[in-house]
Amino acid sequence: MHKLQAWLRGKWAIPAISGLLIIASFAVEHLADGAFNVIFGPRWWVDAGAHAHHGLDEFTLANLFMLIAAVVAGYQILISAVRALSTKMISIDLLVSVAAIGAIIIGNFWEAAAVTFLFSIGHALEAGTMNKTRSALAELVAVAPDTAVVLREGTQYEIPAHEVASGETVLVKNGAKVPVDGVVLAGTGSIDEASITGESIPVEKSQGDLVYAGTISNGGFLQVEATGIGADTTLARIIHRVEEAQDAKAKTQAFIDRFSTWYTPAVMILALLAGLITQDVVLALTLLVIGCPGALVISIPVAIVAGIGRAARNGILIKGGEYLETSGKISAVAVDKTGTLTAGKPKLTDVFVLSPTMTKDEVLAWAAAAEAGSEHPLATPILQAAAEHGVAPVNLPEDVTPVVGKGVVADVDGHQILIGNPALMADHEVEGLLEATAAADSFASAGKTPMIVAVDEHIIGVVAVADQIRADAPAMIAQLHDAGVSKVVMLTGDTHLVAEAIGKATGIDEIHASLLPEDKLDAVVELQQQGHTVAMVGDGVNDAPALATADIGVAMGAAGSAVAIETADIALMGDNLLKLPEAISLAKRTNRVMKQNIVIALATVAVLLVGVFAGNVTMALGMLVHEGSVLIVILNAMRLLRNGRQSGSHQAAQVQDLPTSTDKAQASQIS
């Protein structure tokens, strides 16, 4: 009983009942007289004097079945039309309702039943397709954890996941879902993060690493401090964003909506005029049915939902239909160097000695002594290298003076130490600057950031720091070109020599170096003035002005950043650069599908209208072809649910073990 009730409430119940009634009507009408009388007895409803052979008119049982079929299939259509009219909207449902009612009035019950039956099938197909295209969202909701095991006063308790308090210790065992966002306190384990990042390769987790709700433990045992629960988890934010994105309209969809607002009344006026001029009511009603822009109206939303759903399943979060459509037009991509083309974790690669009385370790020790009191980002790799070589500074400098754009001046144990660029050395008139500058230029041309070290106005050496080029950066550039991006531009605050070396190694088309944040914004504006649709990839901090100005702002590794998920137009949840060309390729495929769907819809209406005036298309045939076009549009959009291209994550895995040029330099120079 419950199954029957559920089926009756389902989307296919009305088309099925209406279809059975239509079949029953045909069966009654075409059943032989003798066979009918044997099975059902004399046809008492037929006037004995009328139509001696068939006796079929608008009051026969066959026509009654057709009438009921039209009512069953059409009553919800009529209700939708009335509701739309109440909000001053003339909808497609109104066209079908008027045509069906008109067909009933003139006694054309088959046409009324066929039109409403086929239209109800179209509605069911649309509903089913939208549910399927939203399957990525359903999958995200399905991975949300229901329960959590928390540790309270040394005892394990299993509780609903939403009842975990922030700061509590959650236990993640082998095979369990991680119930919260948090930080690993103890233990090691392997976590499948595909639901968040789209990457199929599990990630090893240990103390200090971040974990996300909805991911799954493939092995090990973790104690996790809860930092994000319920609606504050990364998974919840993703689900919320995908819900909003799939409902957001693209510019093309908004245009189609405006077009339909004028198009539908125009069809009604055309049908009225045709009926008045030709005195042919059937022609007028047929025009109403043929003119339904059903395939046109669904052509855009079904593609948008499918495209955004496919992207979400692959760890690419697109904010809405407008951004998906714009991404399909991207012709230039601007990327920040640090953290995008490079790993964002610089290391000391070279120590070049210029003083005959010094060793590499001594030069490194003086450099570390000066940097011990510096907040500059490049101080960290120098101090780390000094610790590894056993020459880490014992005490902090007595005085540290940062010189903006040049370096640092520090007083250590009565000695003045300078560490910075040639301009800093020139200001202090140190000795040996010519040879040091040549060495610095040599390192810079190799993609490294050099710093000259001087003690008491004598240069003792040059240290060089380099950020490691990401293994998948060259592949990203190549795939962006393959995806139709004509120009990939690097925007960096680093020096020209370093930027050129990185650009040469990765295949960048254009380089802009030594930029301030406002300079990056100007570079993006310049690209836009050249006619490009620009995507900017950055970390959202010093790149914020450029990200806001670009047509599309892209955030990398957004799984750990709530701000990126909320503000970026496209958020790549994992740290895989190859997701960027994948996102652009998907957007371009979506745009192609939308254009194809519009052509299919308009061409179908045009051909049918010609057929109607030529007298070759009936109301039922027109609706059949019309619903066929709806089905074609739907199937075309559903192609987006398939992976159109390889994400490239496994390709990246194959090259990540290859040593970069800076790796080789580090191995040969520091030791």
Automatic annotation (TrEMBL):
- Asked if the keyword ATP-binding belongs to this entry, the reply reads yes
Q: Region entry Disordered: which residue ranges?
A: 651-671
Write down the InterPro entries for this protein, in alphabetical order: ATPase_P-typ_cyto_dom_N, ATPase_P-typ_P_site, ATPase_P-typ_TM_dom_sf, ATPase_P-typ_transduc_dom_A_sf, ATPase_P-type_domA, Cation_Transport_ATPase_IB, HAD-like_sf, HAD_sf
The residues covered by the P-type ATPase A domain are: 144-243
**From the Swiss-Prot or TrEMBL record, what is one GO molecular function term?**
metal ion binding
Q: Which residues cross the membrane?
A: 12-32, 61-82, 259-277, 283-309, 598-617
Q: What is its main location?
A: membrane
What Pfam families does the record point to?
E1-E2_ATPase (PF00122), Hydrolase (PF00702)
**What are the record's GO terms for cellular component?**
plasma membrane
Subcellular location field: Cell membrane
What is the topology of this protein in the membrane according to its UniProt annotation? Multi-pass membrane protein
Write the record's keywords in alphabetical order, separated by commas.
Answer: ATP-binding, Cell membrane, Hydrolase, Membrane, Metal-binding, Nucleotide-binding, Translocase, Transmembrane, Transmembrane helix
Keyword Metal-binding annotated:
yes
Give the family this protein belongs to, as stated in its UniProt record.
Answer: Belongs to the cation transport ATPase (P-type) (TC 3.A.3) family. Type IB subfamily.
This protein's name: HAD family hydrolase
